[in-house]
């Protein structure tokens, strides 16, 4: 006790603002349930496992720790399983985690000799007792973040509900026998709460659902709210109310009054229809879900090094699937596992290692690759008198701290909403590149990076070149290149017949287009006509032809299949298509040759008198193609100008990454004027110069980013040779510069090593699963479930990861 009293100055009583970690070690994935328990530093309130606590003592000198140890209790009987009603895990109404109960023991431990004192004990100093009580009473930092994210995703009250207009037209709705007012549909019916019209819902791709009459009625009238008939019961909060202008399911606090207006007594109605959320959950049983997750297959569970699952934190499968593949690559495995120990990363980390990307990425890599946490789990349904047995299923590790770090610079990833795996992958690599900026030779993200060169040949016979760097090769899917066109025609006829008869198309009758990967790669390199291209050689607008190629071949080539297209209202829709992907591909023919002997570059210059200063003109061909995809016309013009009319692909990529920009609707001319004025803001220029950038580049970056220093910095990093970019010209007369200098390069033969597949109708919902080729076999990683794959869905991937084969 005297030893403890002599160290009281190193004990703090936590305040409400302190973050207290008590669920997981900040260096490893040890928890209070691990063999050695968890040690909470009573000065910093960081938690450490048995193998790591001594490192913290060496680094900080903090000797006093609260030791938590939890031992599992036997469960007397099986818990009844409830059917989920939410796309969530571990929350009320979501999937049941079937958590076991644990008995907790607490002790005070003093390092370096691990002197142990019991808790609770009246002999302990009051300061220690108060500190321990405050730690135990406080909500853990991990739990706080999780709860905050869940709250953000609850169904919101509609802003149209309180002042909803209801027309007094004498309409009385009967308790049953409903039918669409514009067709014969008798299910999936929606009651418009303004005028009492009963209309059918949206049509699904396979002909099921409705005939779109309810949403068409909204477009004609603007009446905002509708409730799904068959979901109205005495529990009004469970009724499915949809707001068309808000484009989501909502709460209507006055639903009882709104129903009474049409004579509906909700207390006597029975539930006969699934809500929108329940129908989405029901998709778990359809063909795609079962095929990608290999449901119904005898999948052999796997454990050991490299076979560790990731616990779903709530729609975090996009992160899990992506990181499983990334960490399986030699570049990331070497950087964050083979050559960097947990202790080394901790010693380099700041005072709070939970906010350090290098530390948390090292922690995640060790957790996934070491095999320490990939061990068979104890059965959770043992009865009180039975001996515990083991099952090959593992519990997996929760990537909480890694997710918190990677989301710190991208607020959308901090929510519990589903995200796009591609967007996450690119954001992750960007953060890794920044973290390794001081030592670029150690940057594993470079193994994915490569150069792309666009060659534009105008009718004068002269050329111009544009180069850029990227981490992924994004490919269009040319549906007209499908190899099963005859089968598709037969299916379309069958589908039309079934719809006319009011029948549904069964999953085993569905025929999807099959497009070879070679056709997708060919579409990337295919010549593309550019109309109204201003030629500085001809001093007039003419037609040009653009071709694209790769200037370097990365160690790992990631192919992104553009399965999502934009519908009206900027809603992404998924193409239902199969891609035939071989195990080995050769892209040697896609290498760009650069400026060739005999080629003449287009001279400098801009159209004389054709455009006003700071008012670049968008390429109408690019704009029209983007508009035909469903994008806003003004946004398309802006995208064309922002990408210097390089092409449709570049403009669409710009659009997808700038949809949420606050200035997306600001006219281009105003932006140009504003940017010109901002160029006079010397303080911002000086700030960028202090970062080490040249003044000319700093001014150019501020001009294109609207004066935002952070965006300007991003622009400079994404344009490795920004000094060669002429923002006011469509062409350049300089030869291509080697922007890909120092990047990995080699032959063009690649082997497929990983697939990230998406299940669902859009990037905003559904589920992601990874398949990885490891030790001569395919392995499925479905969150915390890891097993030998029986039938990997190679034709259903969203992201394909290829490793370059050495000659």
Q: Could you characterize what this model shows?
A:
The protein is α+β, with helices and mostly antiparallel strands and about 800 residues long. Helices cover about 30% and strands about 20% of the residues. The chain has 23 helices and 29 strands. The strands form 7 sheets. Strands 11, 16, 20, 24, 25, 26, 27, 28 and 29 form a 9-stranded mixed sheet that branches. Strand 18 (about 530-535) and strand 19 (about 540-550) form a beta hairpin. Helix 10 packs across helix 12 (about 355-370), helix 11 (about 340-350) runs antiparallel to helix 12 (about 355-370) and helix 22 crosses helix 23. The radius of gyration is 30 Å and the shape is globular. Residues about 85-90, about 285, about 380-390, about 605-615, about 670-680 and about 725-735 have low confidence and may be disordered.
The structural class is alpha+beta
How far apart lie the N and C ends?
Answer: 68 Å
Number of helices: 23
Q: Outline the biggest β-sheet.
A: 9 strands, mixed
Poorly predicted ranges (pLDDT <50, ≥5 residues)?
86-91, 283-287, 379-390, 607-614, 671-680, 723-737
Number of strands: 29
Q: Oligomeric status of the shown chains?
A: single chain
Beta strand %: 15-25%
């Amino acid at each position: 006790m005297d030893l403890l009293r002599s160290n009281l100055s190193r004990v703090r009583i936590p305040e409400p603002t302190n973050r207290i970690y008590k669920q997981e070690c900040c260096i490893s994935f040890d928890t209070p349930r691990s063999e050695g328990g968890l040690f909470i530093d009573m000065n910093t309130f960081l938690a450490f496992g048995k193998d790591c606590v001594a490192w913290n003592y060496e680094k900080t000198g903090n000797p006093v720790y609260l030791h938590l140890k939890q031992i599992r209790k036997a469960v007397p009987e099986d818990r009844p399983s409830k059917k989920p009603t939410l796309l969530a895990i571990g929350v009320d109404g979501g999937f049941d985690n079937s958590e076991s109960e644990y008995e907790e023991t607490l002790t005070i431990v003093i390092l370096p000799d691990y002197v142990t004192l019991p808790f609770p004990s009246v002999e302990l100093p009051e300061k220690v007792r108060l500190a321990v009580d405050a730690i135990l009473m406080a909500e853990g930092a991990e739990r706080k973040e999780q709860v905050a994210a869940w709250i953000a995703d609850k169904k919101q009250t509609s802003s149209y509900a309180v002042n909803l207009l209801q027309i007094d037209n004498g309409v009385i709705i009967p308790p049953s026998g409903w039918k669409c007012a514009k067709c014969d549909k008798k299910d999936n019916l929606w009651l418009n709460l303004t005028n009492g019209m009963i209309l059918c819902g949206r049509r699904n791709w396979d002909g099921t659902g409705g005939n779109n009459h309810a949403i068409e009625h909204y477009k004609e009238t603007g009446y905002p709210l509708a409730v799904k008939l068959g979901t109205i019961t005495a529990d009004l909060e469970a009724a499915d109310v949809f707001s068309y202008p808000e484009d989501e399911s909502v709460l209507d606090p006055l639903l009882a009054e709104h129903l009474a207006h049409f004579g509906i007594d909700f207390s006597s109605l029975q539930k006969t229809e699934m809500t929108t959320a329940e129908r989405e959950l029901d998709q778990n049983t359809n063909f795609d879900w079962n095929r990608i997750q290999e449901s119904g297959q005898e999948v052999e569970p796997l454990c050991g090094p490299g076979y560790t699952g990731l616990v779903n934190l709530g729609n975090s499968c996009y992160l899990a699937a992506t990181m499983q593949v990334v960490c399986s690559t030699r570049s990331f495995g070497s950087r964050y596992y083979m050559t960097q120990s947990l202790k080394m990363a901790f010693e380099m980390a700041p005072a709070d290692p939970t906010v350090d990307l290098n530390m948390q990425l090292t922690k995640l890599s060790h957790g996934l690759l070491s095999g320490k946490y990939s061990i068979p789990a104890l059965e959770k349904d043992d009865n009180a008198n039975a001996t515990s047995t083991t099952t090959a299923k593992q519990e997996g590790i929760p990537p909480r701290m890694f997710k918190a770090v990677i989301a710190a610079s991208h607020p959308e990833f901090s929510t519990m909403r589903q995200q796009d795996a591609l967007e996450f992958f690119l954001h992750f690599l960007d953060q890794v590149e920044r973290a390794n900026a001081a030592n670029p030779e150690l940057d594993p993200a470079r193994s994915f990076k490569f150069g792309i060169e666009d060659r534009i040949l105008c009718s004068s016979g002269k050329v111009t070149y544009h180069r850029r760097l990227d981490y992924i090769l994004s490919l269009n899917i040319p549906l007209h290149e499908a190899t099963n066109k005859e089968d598709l025609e037969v299916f379309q006829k069958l589908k039309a017949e079934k719809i006319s008869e009011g029948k549904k198309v069964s999953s085993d009758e569905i025929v999807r287009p099959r497009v070879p990967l070679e056709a997708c790669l060919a579409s990337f390199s295919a010549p593309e006509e550019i109309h109204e291209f201003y030629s500085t050689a001809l001093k007039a607008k003419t037609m040009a032809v653009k071709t694209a190629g790769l200037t370097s071949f990365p160690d790992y080539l990631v192919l992104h299949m553009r399965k999502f297209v934009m519908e009206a209202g900027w809603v992404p829709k998924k193409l239902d298509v199969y891609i035939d992907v071989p195990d080995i591909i050769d892209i040697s023919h896609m290498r760009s040759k650069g400026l060739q002997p005999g080629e003449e570059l287009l001279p400098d210059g801009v159209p004389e008198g054709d455009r006003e200063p700071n008012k670049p003109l968008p390429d109408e061909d690019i704009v029209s193609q983007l508009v035909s995809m469903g994008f806003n016309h003004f946004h398309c013009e802006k995208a064309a100008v922002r990408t210097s009319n390089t092409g449709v692909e570049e403009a669409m990529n710009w659009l997808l990454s700038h949809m949420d920009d606050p200035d997306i609707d600001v006219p281009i001319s105003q932006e140009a004027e504003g940017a010109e004025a901002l160029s006079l803001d010397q303080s911002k220029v000086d700030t960028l110069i202090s970062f080490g950038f040249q003044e000319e580049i700093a001014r150019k970056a501020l001009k294109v980013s609207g004066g935002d220093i952070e965006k300007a910095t991003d622009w400079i990093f994404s344009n490795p040779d920004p000094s060669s970019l002429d923002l006011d010209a469509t062409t350049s007369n300089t030869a291509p510069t080697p922007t890909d200098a120092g990047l990995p390069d080699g032959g063009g033969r690649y082997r497929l090593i990983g697939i990230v597949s998406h299940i669902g109708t859009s990037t905003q919902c559904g589920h992601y699963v990874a398949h990885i080729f490891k030790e001569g076999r395919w392995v499925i990683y479905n969150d915390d479930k890891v097993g030998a794959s029986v039938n990997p869905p190679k034709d259903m991937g969203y992201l394909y990861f290829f490793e370059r084969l050495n000659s």
